[in-house]
Amino acid sequence: MTSLPPSRRRGDASAATAAAYQTELPPSSLSQPAVCLLVDDDQDVRQAMAHVLEAMGLSCIQASSGAEAIGILEQIGEVPLLISDVSMPGIDGLQLLREVRRRFPDMAVVMLSGVREAETAVECLLAGALDYITKPALLGEIRSRVQRALEKRDLLLQNRFYHQNLERLVDKQAERLKELFLEGVQTLVQALDAKDPYTRGHSSRVSHYALRIAERMGFSGQALEDVRLGAELHDIGKIGTRESVLRKPGPLTADEFTHITEHTVLGERILAPLSRANPTVLSIVRSHHERVDGAGFPDGLEGNRIPWAARIVAVADAFDAMTTDRSYRSSLAPSTALEELKSCAGTHFDRDVVEAFKAEFPDPASLLLGR
């Protein structure tokens, strides 16, 4: 067996395989010296082939059998190119090919055979060989077949590289677009605060209450983030509500009530770009005015048909609304607001959510209320 180059050590991944997962274009096997594992039980054939390959600039490692070739690969890891005879004692070329394809799927494999049988060539190609050379072969044919196999390998690695990095790039751009969109939405939230001074800070307080309730109910991770964001944006649709309705000091007419209920659907439309990445946020915005008895809006959902996050925000929203001065009434004491939540549990609000609110805020008088 030919001694191995000192730079190759057990467990080292080949440069080409590692490069396929880097952020820079993977280096081509054709632009730098490539290592070739040459396997044939005929020493004369090996030496002749090695001479041709080395003249092409390849560094050759020789093996006299399939078993020896596997041992070499176990020691040095993947190499860019394997050229193997088909007919060998012990582990023959086809067995070696299948084993190499299983362990090192990125290796380019070219098979050699002294038998001119189409069936053998087809079997090798179906097993994963990139090419098939019949012995004896002209030098020009060997060079062109080897060159073509390395080119195919490079294309496969580069295609994988582009595919993987395109996915990362698309994900990164999508995240940035989401950030820019939310920055714009935050501007709308600030405009809404300016539009209705009675509700200034309402969204941030509702977000705080809802997050604490969700944590108390055992939610974590992305679910909590969706609750936080959905609660913060729950009233975004009110940017389309007339100020005369928002600030009206007395009861609303039927038409005015219908107009203000439209903020849930409008808010969902405003946040439509989040529908794929954050559907829970949209469900909060649309459904935070639903009631468990089915008397809410906009869809008249009942009980568990109301999204869980919307049921949480409904309680947080109601408590802050009751403890905040509005154009049509003064704020209620926190204890009174809590009693109202309890009395409406099971009809207006989800019982479990109300219980979680009580457990999380045992002394509501200590809360920073928006009066």
Give the SSE map:
Blueprint: H1 15-19, E1 35-39, H2 43-55, E2 59-63, H3 66-76, E3 81-85, H4 93-103, E4 108-113, H5 118-126, E5 131-134, H6 139-195, H7 202-216, H8 221-232, H9 243-246, H10 254-261, H11 263-270, H12 279-287, H13 308-322, H14 334-344, H15 351-360
Parallel strand pairs: 1-2, 1-3, 3-4, 4-5
- The assembly state of the depicted protein chains is single chain
Which percent bin holds the helix content?
Answer: 40-55%
| CATH-assigned fold name of the largest domain | Hypothetical protein af1432
Mean pLDDT: 84
Could you tell me the number of beta strands? Answer: 5
Strand content: 5-15%
Look at the structure and name the CATH superfamily of the largest domain.
Hypothetical protein af1432
Which spans of ≥5 residues are poorly predicted at pLDDT below 50?
A: 1-25
Instruction: Give helix and strand order, one letter per element, not per position.
Output: HEHEHEHEHEHHHHHHHHHH
Main β-sheet, in a few words? 5 strands, parallel
User: Could you say how many structural domains there are in total?
Assistant: 2
For the biggest β-sheet, the strand order reads 2-1-3-4-5
Distance between the termini: 86 Å
The coarse silhouette is: rod-shaped
Q: Helix count, per DSSP?
A: 15
Output the radius of gyration: 35 Å
Per CATH, which architecture of the largest domain?
A: Orthogonal Bundle
Structural class: alpha/beta
CATH class designation of the largest domain? Mainly Alpha
